[in-house]
Hints:
Oligomer: homodimer
CATH class of the domain at 334-389 and 395-484 in chain A: Mainly Alpha
Distance between the termini of chain A: 50 Å
CATH architecture of the domain at 334-389 and 395-484 in chain A: Alpha/alpha barrel
Largest interface: A-B, 69 and 69 residues
Largest sheet of chain A: 6 strands, antiparallel
Structural class of chain A: alpha+beta
CATH topology of the domain at 334-389 and 395-484 in chain A: Glycosyltransferase
Radius of gyration of chain A: 28 Å
Helix content of chain A: 25-40%
Number of helices of chain A: 13
Strand order of the largest sheet of chain A: 6-5-8-3-10-11
Strand content of chain A: 25-35%
Mean pLDDT of chain A: 96
Low-confidence stretches of chain A: none
Amino acid sequence: xxxxxxxxxxxxxxxxxxxxxxxxxxxxxxxxxxxxxxxxxxxxxxxxxxxxxxxxxxxxxxxxxxxxxxxxxxxxxxxxxxxxxxxxxxxxxxxxxxxxxxxxxxxxxxxxxxxxxxxxxxxxxxxxxxxxxxxxxxxxxxxxxxxxxxxxxxxxxxxxxxxxxxxxxxxxxxxxxxxxxxxxxxxxxxxxxxxxxxxxxxxxxxxxxxxxxxxxxxxxxxxxxxxxxxxxxxxxxxxxxxxxxxxxxxxxxxxxxxxxxxxxxxxxxxxxxxxxxxxxxxxxxxxxxxxxxxxxxxxxxxxxxxxxxxxxxxxxxxxxxxxxxxxxxxxxxxxxxxxxxxxxxxxxxxxxxxxxxxxxxxxxxxxxxxxxxxxxxxxxxxxxxxxxxxxxxxxxxxxxxxxxxxxxxxxxxxxxxxxxxxxxxxxxxxxxxxxxxxxxxxxxxxxxxxxxxxxxxxxxxxxxxxxxxxxxxxxxxxxxxxxxxxxxxxxxxxxxxxxxxxxxxxxxxxxxxxxxxxxxxxxxxxxxxxxxxxxxxxxxxxxxxxxxxxxxxxxxxxxxxxxxxxxxxxxxxxxxxxxxxxxxxxxxxxxxxxxxxxxxxxxxxxxxxxxxxxxxxxxxxxxxxxxxxxxxxxxxxxxxxxxxxxxxxxxxxxxxxxxxxxxxxxxxxxxxxxxxxxxxx
Amino acid sequence: xxxxxxxxxxxxxxxxxxxxxxxxxxxxxxxxxxxxxxxxxxxxxxxxxxxxxxxxxxxxxxxxxxxxxxxxxxxxxxxxxxxxxxxxxxxxxxxxxxxxxxxxxxxxxxxxxxxxxxxxxxxxxxxxxxxxxxxxxxxxxxxxxxxxxxxxxxxxxxxxxxxxxxxxxxxxxxxxxxxxxxxxxxxxxxxxxxxxxxxxxxxxxxxxxxxxxxxxxxxxxxxxxxxxxxxxxxxxxxxxxxxxxxxxxxxxxxxxxxxxxxxxxxxxxxxxxxxxxxxxxxxxxxxxxxxxxxxxxxxxxxxxxxxxxxxxxxxxxxxxxxxxxxxxxxxxxxxxxxxxxxxxxxxxxxxxxxxxxxxxxxxxxxxxxxxxxxxxxxxxxxxxxxxxxxxxxxxxxxxxxxxxxxxxxxxxxxxxxxxxxxxxxxxxxxxxxxxxxxxxxxxxxxxxxxxxxxxxxxxxxxxxxxxxxxxxxxxxxxxxxxxxxxxxxxxxxxxxxxxxxxxxxxxxxxxxxxxxxxxxxxxxxxxxxxxxxxxxxxxxxxxxxxxxxxxxxxxxxxxxxxxxxxxxxxxxxxxxxxxxxxxxxxxxxxxxxxxxxxxxxxxxxxxxxxxxxxxxxxxxxxxxxxxxxxxxxxxxxxxxxxxxxxxxxxxxxxxxxxxxxxxxxxxxxxxxxxxxxxxxx
Lengths: 681, 681
């Protein structure tokens, strides 16, 4: 999937290690059958079958099993695709309770006796869509649906087609006929499609003696709003449509308010997420079409307020980690390794899925060990050869020395390790990681906190704090809750609300900046910023949100990046963060115990007259409506607390409002009950 | 290749981890071109091309390069087969001097500037047969040549075909016609082919409406001397032949003597090696058709006295090691891990190939670390869960506790590490391994040497030496040169020549036993044993040498093993050791400095009147003829020493004979000179 990026028609795979599957695996399970039954066996790959340790002749596709205890082992070999198995019987059927191993170690001695101490590591088999003989996992493709173009117009020697908004899929040429080349230039903008020399994505389609006009759909999906087609020779076609390629995700999260611009922002953010949530959460649809840990970390968070599609989260986390040995940071980026740890903490918080933690824990440990082994003699991590210290796309941002931001993320990652060690019942690990986290946190303050500047310094070079202060460590320290009140106030005044500190221009870091401000109670300010920044893109005609946005730029300047005229991705998942901010800080819903066993709702209208929405949980959606004098809430899960401010004592039909202090009130929410609160904001 | 074993028609792959290739790799090289040239590019896989860091459009198969410095990078992706590249130009061509990596880490920053500290590890690309566009490495198959059957006779409802000797290849059915099933039973013995219920290898061929008689060759090569074919339905065929499948290896080593039985032994051993030297050195042709480190270790040694096919040695060593992470012993067997180290020491000794050592050294280090990490608190290795302690196929042989044999092999492996560390210029590693080896050797004597028994004890359980004495550690200690003269004499009398100590019945361990006896000067005894043991198999009609031979058994009992009537492999590489023994201890040729820079020749006729032979070296064959009064020698390489015993002063036409003491004389041999020595034995 990461091999589908092209640039100017050139195959453009990632630059990091690409792992492949285990080519030879053994699936097994024991059953206690109430009666004899016949099973059918379908595998993707060459296979053999053992029943109760005895290998059957040939490659059986039907096997009769006797009543009682039956152990089934099927060994599958497949070099080109992932070995997969589907067994269908009355009782016996493949599910996620089968064991799987890539090393069964079942040796025998010279008498034929099998080893009694094989020491094989078994894990639970991955279960997916292989439950019909014909549904071969290797043949999986995302579904498509046809979409028509909005308009087509002649331009020079060719035709410019506009699909009305940025989209993704396979182009269809209707009634294609003739001989020659059809030059196809894709554009996320009109300018890009028409810039035949510099558009990022092209197809040079050779048409060979098409005598009968026929509809032809291209092989590789592409990102575009505009397509410019220039035929050569006798090539002709009638019109152009597309096959929209998408991952079906349930429509769960929702937001609507009295502010139409904000609604539009939410809708465009949702569509941006729809386009970038695919086989995995990818960064952007035009570029890179790769799985980046830092980008995915934000996609997961948005997903918890939109589709709550845990399968996509899990498979992206797994794909990012890859296989042992661990020889590089995830995507080669140090910060991206840390986001990977953080993403697991978040996943557990939103879903409560301990089983996934148990499965991934060994690979968390080895990745953390990789990190700890790369610390220098001061116990800090700096970029070694082959480590990309990314942080953000920002002009002149120093990556030299030991950057405070990286230590901060490592510290949080260690805390995540401690939490997960506890979850999987490893108290020794738990103590170890707690201790490492504490030591590092102490260093973080000792080495980087600057009492004059009331902020963390950006970095440390040759054992000395540098003069530079940037937003990154400071804003993350806010929502990591690492600062006391005084320090928080310092960071807010001297960094976050200080225009002298280098501004952030990527939606990527805007996400964290605005989150930090929300945590500091600056939600009115953030609402305004959100409308300015994302509203700013909408005013420029954005139909999906961008990789980077600098309001100071003009016209087609906006599309340039990486030294290329149209290098910028105009549909980038990290652009969709209003979904997260609106869900978490305005609708105000977030879990306070894993998987929404407990949660709080702290609605905040800011400049809005009213808002309503749905926030997905593992057991359905929390629905709420909030206006200046009424709140309606219903939750399918857990125990919640509605926290509200009211100038008068709120009145409720269900439940009991508790006065906290001043204008602060609290209402305990039980699942399944529709609450209605009359109050005065 | 290891997936071609079948048992009763069932796919039977190995039980250890099967590694796959890196699916995405980048090849690169810099050239300084004297003139502009056009290159042609052929790849197995999807690829892109960069010239001087600039990616070219599409998938170019021709590229024009300018005069001067040109850097070429080609990135190839191939999931199902190994990514491979062939570039053909005047100056520019793919060879083993290209760099390759699976992780190029060429990230760019937001301005498009490439990283200046990628930290990528490059290794030299493997070079093989891809030097014509059409010779695709993935399509590689061993060559075949047709062979006729010796006889065919009717048997019951079918036909029994005899190919005269054990062989390997694809069966061809001539003028096959009709509809129904053709049951094919292969046998390394006549009994096996006719035992349709228990023969190990079968093909149940479905013949569908063959109306025109046609020749049909089966898909999968098999091992057999006899084939029994039982047609069902209307299936008929005319006769049966085969396509003999083989690795072309130069015919280099040679042995002939006055003893025809010994000559036959050498010929059959040679044929056994021919059959088991294939894509890799495998154990046996019927079973397992897998690559086993302990078996291969012996094949390498025989190969140095036969084909001297270093490519086969290298690719087998590489295949056995596999990829990181190291999670199990090689083939899951502890001793087989150690033989892997020893095989590298031997390879260097015979070939002097430092380049291979440099390439494999990192994987030697990590495998050794895996071993050292598995030692217990006494610093000894015992079988942990998942470790197979094999030693030998021998009834009742204990694998419990800390077996002395495993410590002995580990000690020798550590010495090999020290030697290789020195070769690759790692003095710190060298000291480390030397120290570890010394400590372990001290323990070996402290824990296992028994002064009463004048031998190493077999094992140690719960911190105590066991009573058991076996041949394994004791005989290896001889040719590892770990014993002083007194200890050697003790081992010889109390173990090697003591019938009370459990006898060895596998040619596998016979190899080492006889080698130890040769080292102790018992070459007359060994000659007799060799003729008895291997001659014993010949008397039973062996056409290739067996996995195991117990002279006490009768008739078809010989074919049984692993609790199965025909479980035994009758063509097993470890059966071919007379090649090694005759070359090293009777022709008496062995290198004394790496790659035959120095060597010695110590001919020993034993019961022979005369013998002659060729021993291959990196630069051709050392040829010699030895009778009781004449020795003729010519060597293409290095400086040798002919060591001989003579009752009279030897006379030479070339060179100068030096008297050592008593009957011992020495003649220095320079390359290219034909020496002739008249002496009296």
